[in-house]
C-alpha cells in the first residue's frame, strides 16, 4: 500500500488540509439492535468450492462413480479401449446390490512393473515438503498381486513421496497408509504400480492431508476454514444457491443422501459443470463428502448459526423449471421436517440418532430454515404456503426464510414481496448482482421499507465489474468499496435488515465458473479478495446497537461521495464509526459525538488502494488489506480519509 494513503487516513488532531465535513454522532440512544446474524457467509458448491476446495480430498473420482467411471484416472502404458494390451488394463464393474457407490475398479496386471494407474487430482494435487498425507482404499480379490505402491510424482515423473499396501484378504477390506512429501508441488499426481501379475479390485481410493481443520480425519482444508473463521460470521447459509434447485428435480440437492457413512453417499453431477459455455467443467461432480452433517459441524466450529436451504419442489427456473404437483409435494415437506429433527432431535428420534451415530449426540440448535432458493411467481408462493403451514405446526419457533426471486426489482420481485408480506413471512431473501455504481446509488434502498413487514436477508450480492456471469468480472477495488458504501445502508437499516452475505464465496484458480468471488484458492494457497476484507471489517466491527450519524441533519448516504454508519458495542464498550470515501480526492471529517464520553485513545483501520482496478492476487495476496494504527483523541476526533477508502474508527467509551 502507498504510505501516503496511510498518512491521509490517520486521525488528524490539527486543522485538516481539505474541506472539512462535520458528522454528528448521537451515542445516547440505540436506534435498533444489530442482529448477531447481520454479517454471515453463503456457501455454494460452485467454482470447485467443495470437492477440490473446502473438502480436502485429493483424489478425483475416488469411487469411480462419475458418468465416465475412469474420468480422472490415466493408464499411460495401456489403452483402456484395447483389452489385448501387453502391460495390463483397468475397467470398472457395477455391483447391482449397491445403491450408492456401485462401481469399483477391476485391474488386470499382465506385466510386472509395466502397468500403472495415475490419478490427476483436482487440477493436480498440492503437496508440501515434509507434510504427511493419509491414504485409504478398499481392496478385494487380489489374485497374484502382492503389493501396490503409491507415489506422488511431478509432471516429469519424478517421485516426491512413496508408500505401499499389501493385500492380505480375499473379500473386501479397508487398508491405510501414509505418504510424506519430499518436495512442494502444486501439480502432483498419484501413481499406482503393482508387484506381481494377476487381478485386483479396488474402491474408494482416497487421499487427505493429515493436517486438516481441527485435525479431523478426512476433514476440511485448514487454510480455507481459517479464512471463514476470521470473518466472525453470524451465520452460514448452505448448500446454495442454484444447486439446491437442480437443473431438473432429479438433480436437486437431497440432504438425506449426504449424511451417514461417506462411502454410502450417492454422487451427483454438479449443476454448474456445463452451465456456462465459457467455462465448461465436465469433470465437476459432488461426492457429498462435504454433506449436511459437515455443514452443521463447520457452522458450529466457526460460531455461525446454520441456515440450510431446501428444495421447494421447483427445479431452476432458468433451466427446466420442472414442478412437483402440489398434491405430490409431501415428500419434499417431510424432508424439511426430518432435517429439523436431524439437527435438533433427541438421540431417541430416527434422524437424531443418525446425527448421534455420526459423532454429534448434542443437537445443533437449528433456528432457521430456508424454503427454496430464488424461485418466483405464483408457483413458488403456493408451495411456500404448504411448507410454512407444516413447519410451523410441528416447530412453531422455527424461523422460515422465503425468497423474492433472483432480481432486486421488477415484476417478479414486486409480486413476491407483496405476496410474502400478505402471508406475514418472517424473513425475505433478496439477491442483487449489479454494477459498482448501483451499489453506491442504492445505499438508501431500505430506508423506506416497512418496519412492520418481513425482515430482510440480503442473501446474495456482489458488484459486477463487467456484467452478471461475465468471465471478465474482477474483484477490483471499485467493486469492494462500492459494496462497503452499500453496507453502511444495510447497517443503518438494521431494524429491517437482519442477515447479509456476499456471494459466491470460494473459487479455484483454474476450476471456476463464475466471478467475482470472495476467496480465491489453488492447490497450495488461498487469499481474500479486497471484497473479503470489506466483509471482514464490517463483520468484525458490527457492534450491538445502531446509533445515529448525520450530516447536516441527514443520513450520510453519498453526499459528497461520503457514506457512514455508526454503532455501539455494549460488550466491548466502544463506539464504532464506519466511513466510506468513494471520491477520487481525500476528505477531512470531524466527528461531533454526543451522549457519550470518549476515551483519550482510539484506533483507525483503513482499507484503500490507489486505483479502481487494483486487485489482490496470488502474487500479491494482501495488496489491498486493512492497516490499523492507534491515535490519541482530544475533543472532536478529526479524520482525513484517503481517496477511495473504507475506514473504521473505534474508540472506547468512558
UniProtKB/TrEMBL annotation:
MF (Gene Ontology): alpha-L-arabinofuranosidase activity
Record flagged with keyword Kinase: no
PANTHER family: ALPHA-L-ARABINOFURANOSIDASE 1
SMART domains, alphabetized: Alpha-L-AF_C
Segments forming domain Alpha-L-arabinofuranosidase C-terminal: 459-645
The name this protein goes by in its record: non-reducing end alpha-L-arabinofuranosidase
Keyword vocabulary terms for this entry: Glycoprotein, Hydrolase, Signal
Entry similarity comment: Belongs to the glycosyl hydrolase 51 family.
Sequence segments annotated as region (Disordered): 616-635
Keyword Glycoprotein found: yes
E.C. numbers: 3.2.1.55
Major enzyme class: hydrolase
Swiss-Prot/TrEMBL catalytic activity: Hydrolysis of terminal non-reducing alpha-L-arabinofuranoside residues in alpha-L-arabinosides
GO terms for biological process, alphabetical: L-arabinose metabolic process
